[in-house]
Write a structure and sequence with these properties.
The complex is a heterodimer of chains A (about 350) and B (about 180). Chain A is built from five helices and 18 strands. Chain A is of the alpha+beta class and about 350 residues long. Classes of the chains: A alpha+beta (about 350), B alpha+beta (about 180). At the A-B interface, helix 1, helix 2, strand 1, strand 2 and strand 7 of A face helix 1, helix 2, helix 3, strand 1 and strand 2 of B.
Chain lengths: ~350, ~180
């Protein structure tokens, strides 16, 4: 199923009229279910562009992107990464190479879960694609990722895509989807089938196949390991992570666009998200704060340890699904005395 | 379980009479419409959500590469790529800055200016979000072979040699059909 796009079988009413004379409803239901599966089984985990270009002779392992991927992957196994590389142009020395590391440890230098990489032998070979199976603990442990480059392999951009490979027999999925389709309440009431009914079907099938499936709204990081490249702020007032002279969310302040329009399940006008930061408060137990601000409110993450780690918040960040894209600003405030250091932020929808 | 056509018609009897049309065609039409609308609803998703602590900057009139994104799957027919940047222009005398999102297929990937593109402009000297640009998936299909993967590059220039344009945030997402008509 890797890289398989959605095929829209019904491009016009004329097509449907033709189909009506040839197919049973069960067959139509199967096609619908297949289409929906394709829609659900693709997810961009992390895409980075223009992040890192070391000198051509550089041989150190770097950089480290701090990522978080989806939660429990019980029913998903395929993982693909795509990289754009700009290999060194100088001759001699070892061939440029790259490695994408995936692991549960915060420091993925020595991770063991998943590793994929390659050697750049052809200067024109600017795009590397690798597919590998991501095998993480089904307990829901989350994972960090890093990208290493060596011998002048300039990592221009990286995309990591998750393809959810169904473990259930396809027949089970299709028949079950058809069954759910015909038992929808509006259908039985003789009101016809509308988008929301199918949306309900999508929700149910999705929830059955991927119980903890979450859509990631954004996952951003500096390119530093824990020892460097953090965004730092000491002042006890909020400053935007992209421009610390900006203290509040406004129409023009920098942030992440979250396209949530029409994404509200069962017609809801909002969706709820969990937010996280990878951060450390050098003041230790003193409280520093990272704030996620959408158009509908804030979610604050308190950071009160000097040990760099992922911090989650018990609060909810709410996004507006009635507009094309709700923007989320991330602001940070230290304790007034000691620097708060932030390496990464993430926002993802809660599972059903 | 096997669902037969007859069982479906039985469940639709009330709706069938009120519509007056052939039940089979109407049913399938509704299924198709609803399915496409549902796809639209669920296809509004992020591809790229990037930001830079130090803004990406281009000076002069030559279109230059700011960022490059590899191998992103394309959903054909009824989906488009939507995108938005936060940018400003500085220097020169009333300059116009242009940001281009260029889509290339696997053959033309890289630092060339082939492919199809969408352009956004600004004349503002202070940061602001651009309007939302659109790269039509129909254009992707029409430009040649079906682009299974699309390679995206972000480029920019100004209309004056002494002016520069800075980009601080980029978001690219799928946007399906507007389901409001259903």
């Amino acid at each position: 199923m890797a890289d398989q796009p959605i095929v829209t079988d019904f491009k016009s009413i004329d097509d449907v009229e033709t189909y009506a004379n040839q197919a049973t409803v069960a067959e139509i239901g199967k096609k619908i279910a297949l289409n929906l599966q394709h829609l659900l089984t693709w997810h961009a985990l992390r895409v980075v562009g223009a992040q890192y270009e070391p000198s051509p002779d550089e041989t150190v392992r770097t950089p480290h992107y701090r990522w978080r991927i989806l939660d429990t992957l019980t029913n998903s196994r395929a993982q693909a990464c795509h990289l754009c590389l700009l290999p060194k142009t100088t001759s001699g020395g070892s061939a440029p190479s790259w490695t994408l590391n995936v692991g549960a440890s915060a420091d993925t230098d020595s991770i063991a879960h998943w590793k994929v990489g390659g050697t750049v032998n052809n200067p024109q070979d600017v795009v590397h694609r690798r597919a590998a199976q991501l095998s993480v603990a089904p307990s829901g442990a989350e994972t960090n990722m890093t990208v290493d480059s060596a011998n002048g392999a300039r990592v221009q951009s990286v995309a990591v895509v998750q393809h959810m490979r169904l473990t259930a027999p396809p027949g089970w999925v299709l028949d079950d989807a058809v069954y759910r389709l015909v038992t929808l309440t509006p259908y039985l009431a003789g009101k016809g089938i509308h988008a929301q009914d199918i949306g309900q079907l999508v929700d149910r099938v999705q929830n059955d196949l991927f119980p903890n499936w979450r859509r990631q709204q954004f996952c951003w990081s500096t390119r530093g390991a824990t020892s460097g490249d953090a965004i730092s702020r000491t002042a006890g007032t909020f400053g935007n992570i992209f421009d610390q002279t900006i203290s509040t969310r406004s129409a023009t302040s920098p942030g992440f666009q979250c396209p949530a329009r029409n994404a509200g399940r069962f017609g809801a006008t909002t969706i709820e998200c969990d937010v996280e930061v990878y951060a450390a408060n050098t003041g230790g137990a003193t409280s520093a704060t990272v704030r996620f601000a959408s158009s509908l409110g804030n979610a604050d993450v308190i950071v009160n340890s000097a040990t760099a780690q992922w911090w989650q918040v018990a609060q909810t960040l709410t996004l507006d699904t009635t507009i094309e894209a709700d923007r989320v600003d991330v602001l940070m405030a230290g304790d007034g005395t000691n620097p708060l250091r932030v390496w990464a932020v993430r926002c993802q929808e809660r599972p059903l | 379980m096997a669902i037969t056509y007859g069982r479906q018609l039985g469940r639709l009897s009330t709706w069938q009479r009120s519509d007056g049309g052939p039940a089979s065609s109407r049913l399938l039409q509704e299924l198709a419409r609803a399915t496409n609308a549902a796809k639209s609803r669920y296809a509004s998703r992020n591809l790229v959500n990037d930001g830079w602590v130090s803004a990406l900057r281009v000076t002069g009139t030559t279109e230059s590469l700011l960022a490059m994104y590899p191998a992103l799957p394309v959903i054909p027919y009824c989906f488009s790529l939507r995108w938005q940047v936060r940018a400003r222009v500085q220097g020169g005398a009333g300059p116009t800055g242009t940001v281009v999102l260029r889509a290339q297929d696997a053959v033309h990937r890289g630092e060339t200016t082939t492919g199809i593109s969408s352009t956004l402009t600004t004349t503002s000297t202070s940061y602001g979000f651009s309007s939302i640009g659109t790269l039509s998936a129909v254009s992707l299909v029409a430009s040649g072979a079906w682009w299974r993967d699309v390679f995206l590059s972000l480029r920019a220039n100004t209309n004056q040699a002494g002016a520069s344009i800075e980009v601080s945030n980029l978001a690219i997402w799928y946007e399906g059909l507007d389901a409001s008509d259903w």
